Known about the structure:
This protein has about 230 residues and is mainly alpha-helical. It has helices at about 5-80, 85-170, 175-185, 210-215; strands at about 190-195, 200, 230. A hairpin with a 2-residue loop joins strand 1 and strand 2 (about 200). Helix 1 (about 5-80) packs antiparallel against helix 2 (about 85-170). The longest helix has about 80 residues, at about 85-170. It is rod-shaped and about 130 Å long.
Amino acid sequence: MSLDFGLLQTLHRMLRQLTDIEDRMRRGPMKVKIVETNETSFATDEAECLSRQDELRRSSNEKTMQLNEREAKIEDMKAKLNACESNKEFQLLKDRIAADLQANSVLQDEILEMLERLDVVNAEVVDAKANHQKSKDETAVMRDKVKLELIELTAEKERVSGELAESEKDLPGTMMDNYRRLVRLKGENSFAVFMIDNCDNCNQRLTTQTISNLMLKKLVYCPGCGAVLYTKT
C-alpha cells in the first residue's frame, strides 16, 4: 500500500490546529480565574481597610465621649471648690482635679494619635476601593473577551474538524480503525515526521528496513511511540 504522505502531512497539520484551538479554549477560563482571584484579593483588602477604619472611628468616638465626660466632671469639681468647708476637703478636691486633668491630657494624646492613624487608614480605604473597582472592571473586560474568543474558537474548531473529517475520507480503509484509535489516544502525536533517520516525536532511531519502507511510502509505525511516520513533501 502506497500512502499519500501529503495527505498525512495535512492530517497532522489539522490535528495540531485542533490541539492549539483546544489549548486556547482551556486557557480562556484560566485567564478569567486569575483576574477573579485578583478581584477577590482586592475585595479582601478593601474589607480589611474598612474594618480598621470602623474600629478606629469607634474607638476615637468612645474616647472623645470619655474625655467630654471627664471635662464636665472637672468643671463640676471646680464649681464645688468654693463650697468646701475645710482646707483638707479643698486640697483633696484640687488633687482630684489635677489627677483628672493629667488623665485627660493622656487621653487627648491618645485621641490625637488615633485621628492621625485614621487619616492614614482613610487614604488606604480610598486606594483599596479604587483598586477593587479597577479589578472588577478588569474582570468584566476579561470575561467579555474570553466569551468572544470562545465563540470564535468554537467556530474555528468546527471548521477545522469539518475539513479534517473530509480529508480523513481519503485514508485507506485498512488503516482507518487504527488511525481513529491513535487519534483518540494521542491526538496530534498520532503522526510523526521522519527526520534524517529519527522519529521527530520520540527521537527513536529507525532501522534501515523501516527507512526503506518509508521511501517506498508504505504504512510505517514508529517502534518507539507508535506514531504513523511520513516524510515531508
